[in-house]
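This section describes the prediction task in plain terms. A model, or a person checking by hand, is given the sequence of a single protein chain and must write out its three-dimensional structure as a string of tokens. No templates, partner chains or ligands are provided. The sample shown here is typical of the held-out split.
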Amino acid sequence: MSNVHTLNDIKDREGGSYKKPGHRLDKYNEQEKESQRTYADIGNKISQLNASSTKVRSQLISEQKSHSESRCELEAKYSAKIKSLKLSIKSLKRELTLVQKALSVDKITILSLETKVRCNRRYGIDYTEINVRW
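The expected answer:
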């Protein structure tokens, strides 16, 4: 068993692979501190991202409210305009109907007068000298 060594034997050797327990703890403490710093940095970044996210969300909500208000205003404005135009169309349709009826009456009157003129020409009445007022 010449290959069996105790920690003290290894400790006493120079250039050996054994390191003091305190050295290992120091290295572990350094790694732990580095991990804590990294963890703290990540925590800070998360906080910054949360703050940015909250700010962007707030701006988005504000813009949505603004767009919603603008949309409502436009809808009200154009609804009134559309209603006005529909009333104008209805009024113009009524006017068109009245004009068509008047034209129809005028056409009947003209046809009736033409018929009378033809009949009177048969009897020799000359209308060139008579002033007709409408």
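For orientation: Residues 43 and 81 are 56 Å apart (CA to CA).
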